[in-house]
Structures are given as structure tokens and as C-alpha cells.
Amino acid sequence: MPATGSAQAEAWQIMLDVFLRQRSRFVALAQEFGLAPAQAIALKHLDPETGTPMSELARSLGCDNSNVTGIADRLEGAGLVERRPSPTDRRVKTLVLTAKGAEIRAAHQRRITAAPPEFQALSDADAAALLEILHQVVSPRGDPLA
Amino acid sequence: MPATGSAQAEAWQIMLDVFLRQRSRFVALAQEFGLAPAQAIALKHLDPETGTPMSELARSLGCDNSNVTGIADRLEGAGLVERRPSPTDRRVKTLVLTAKGAEIRAAHQRRITAAPPEFQALSDADAAALLEILHQVVSPRGDPLA
DNA sequence: TATTGTTATACTCTATAACTATA
DNA sequence: TATAGTTATAGAGTATAACAATA
Questions:
Q1: A94 - beta bridge partners?
Q2: Which residues contact B103 (CB under 8 A, 6 or more apart)?
Q3: B5 vs B108: which has the higher pLDDT
Q4: A74 touches strand C (CB under 7 A)
Q5: How far apart are CA A123 and CA B63, in angstroms?
Q6: Are B132 and B49 in contact (CB under 8 A)?
Q7: Distance between CA atoms of A42 and A44, rounded to whole angstroms?
Q8: Residue-wise pLDDT tens digits, B71-97
Q9: Can you tell me the distance from the alpha carbon of A108 to that of A105, in angstroms, rounded to the nearest whole number?
Q10: pLDDT of residue B92
């Protein structure tokens, strides 16, 4: 069923289609690293330098604090993160990547950010044009699509 | 951290970013219709004309048959689908949308396919160019990104 | 009073394995 | 033998509500 309406709407609908088709790929890739999908997303949101307070992670993930407790439990159980008390606020626990966690996070990021063949097949000119247009949609700074 | 490497890879990485940002939107939208995320995706995959055999739905969703049993239970409990025996194979049950299910499916599709403001803001020329390039990535026929 | 993290509870999604009824 | 759907079981994600410690 072809998208009807403006070119803007049609483009969006194709993007939606791409999302949907990538879903199973994302799940399978996370699994390759022994991660459940939410765990992979959580790892991605952890600051590799400073670590990230649990409540901040909850906000990044758009979920409840109580949910993060369980995700952190499992990541900690797998030896990928560590709960560290905040020096400035004794209520806060900061999730910090272990060496193993940092390694897995980086490897997963490398794999997931590698362009699929269909993107690699674009001509340089098309890729450059695509990049420029996407930059308008997701402006480098600011709150794109938020 | 800016994407490094080819324009192809950079474009892909921006697409990934858009996916991630849409996640919570998708969940919230499904919830507006009283649907869990997987239920919304299942509804989308049901053929509104003929209905869809449960095992075919399992393949579309990339999950096990046993999983579809539960999803179908809940959709049926909500009065959105009906299990109907196949006339040609007595092992098969076809999931058919009820009137209410068809309505909710259509309304949800209308909402989710509406382009976000950032896409609507593209110039007609940019939108047309984007559309053309995306068509190369997801070719109208064939197995894009599969 | 408000926030952080936890616990308890409940529901959904998911897979595996065992089962049935068909084919 | 193989497939379609179910059931049982288990683990993961999610939210709400209640709680202790801290701000």
C-alpha cells in the first residue's frame, strides 16, 4: 500500500518501515552480546567516563526508577556495571561501566552503527544529500523529534 | 560524538538516532489505544481483508508460535480480533479483525504514520529528494534490509 | 516535603519443551 | 514425520504503590 499525501509524509512512512524491519535485527544483535534489548539500550545511555545516576538513566529510558533497579541488577550480575555511591548525594547510586562492560558496550556500538548493505550501496552524492537532509530533521544540537 | 567515516555510515547513524528517539513515542501512542506495543505491531500485520493465520503472524513478528497464543488471547479479550477456523486446514486458526479491531487498527495507523513536525518542516524539494533516496534503500519491491 | 533507590505485586512479552490434533 | 496451536514454565521488561534513607 503506497503512502499517500505529501512527500514529507511519504518519506516519514518509509522511515517507519525501515524501523519495523530493523526490529528483529536489533534484538538478535543484542543477544549476540548476551544482552536483552533493554540492557543494550541502557548500556548505550551510560556515560563511559563518569557513569550515570540510576534516576538519570530512568529518564533517558523513559521508564520508572523501579524498572532501572532490575536492569541494573542484571547488568551487575553479568559483571558489566557497578553501583557506586555518589560522593555528593548519599541517596544516589551511580552506574559505572566495568572494563568488561565498556568493552561490550563499545563492541555492540560498533556493530549496530555499521551501515547495512543497502546504505553502503548509495552513491556518494546520494549519501551526502541524504546526510544533509537528515541533519535538518535531526539538527546536530537541539531536541530533534523530542 | 559525531559519526566518523563515510557519508553512508553517517546517514545510517542518524537514522539509528531517530529510531531510538521514537521508541517512547511508539509506546505512548499504542497505550493511547489501550494496546501493549506488541499488540499494536500484531494488529498492523493482520490482513484487514482476509485475516491472518497465527503461524504466519508469528513469522511476521519474528517470534515463536507460543508467543502469538498469548497476544491473540489478549487481543481477543479486548474484542479486537476473532479466532476463526480455516476451512482448508483444520490445524489453522485465522485471526480476523472485528469491527472494533479494524477501527482501532486504522486509527492507530493514521496516528503513527502522520509525519512529525520535523519532517513536515522539510521543503518540498528536500522532501522529494529524501523520498527518492529512501526508495533506493527500501526498494518498493524486493527484500529491503532483510 | 521531595527525591533516590528498593521491594512487592501484577501484567505483558518472550523462549523452550511437551502435548494435541491434524496433515 | 512435520506443522499449527496450546499449555506449562521461566526469565525479562514494565508500571504502581509503599517504604527507608536522605535532601
A1: A53, A84
A2: none
A3: B108
A4: no
A5: 35
A6: no
A7: 5
A8: 999 999 999 999 999 999 999 999 999
A9: 5
A10: 98
What pTM was estimated for this model as a whole? 0.91
Residue A64 is placed in which grid cell?
520508572
- Chain A within 8 Å of B106 (Cβ-Cβ)? no
Scanning the structure block, which residue is given the C-alpha cell 543497502? Answer: A118
Residue B95 pairs in a beta bridge with B52, B83
Q: Which structural domains are found in chain A, ordered by start?
A: 22-113 (1.10.10.10), 115-146 (no CATH)
User: Which stretch of DSSP H or E encloses residue B72?
Assistant: helix B65-77
**Do B122 and A115 lie within an 8 Å CB cutoff?**
no
Instruction: Report how far residue B130's alpha carbon sits from residue B135's, in angstroms, rounded to the nearest whole number.
Output: 8
A8 contacts on B by Cβ (under 8 Å): 115, 119-120, 122, 124, 127
Do residues A44 and A109 make contact, with C-beta atoms less than 8 angstroms apart? yes
Q: Following DSSP, what letter does each residue of A54-95 receive, concatenated?
A: HHHHHHHHTS-HHHHHHHHHHHHHTTSEEEEE-SS-TT-EEE
Q: What's the CA gap between B20 and A146, in Å, rounded?
A: 11
d(CA B120, CA A39): 33
Among A115, A4, A22, A59, smallest CA distance to B41 is for A22
Which amino acid appears at position A54 of this protein? M
How confident is the model over A2-34, as pLDDT tens digits? 556 899 999 999 999 988 888 999 999 999 999
Taking CB atoms and an 8 Å limit, are A11 and B144 in contact across chains? no
Cell of A73: 541488577
Please answer whether residues A139 and B18 qualify as being in contact, where contact means their C-beta atoms are separated by less than 8 angstroms: no
Q: In this structure, are residues B115 and B126 in contact, taking their beta carbons and an 8 Å threshold?
A: no
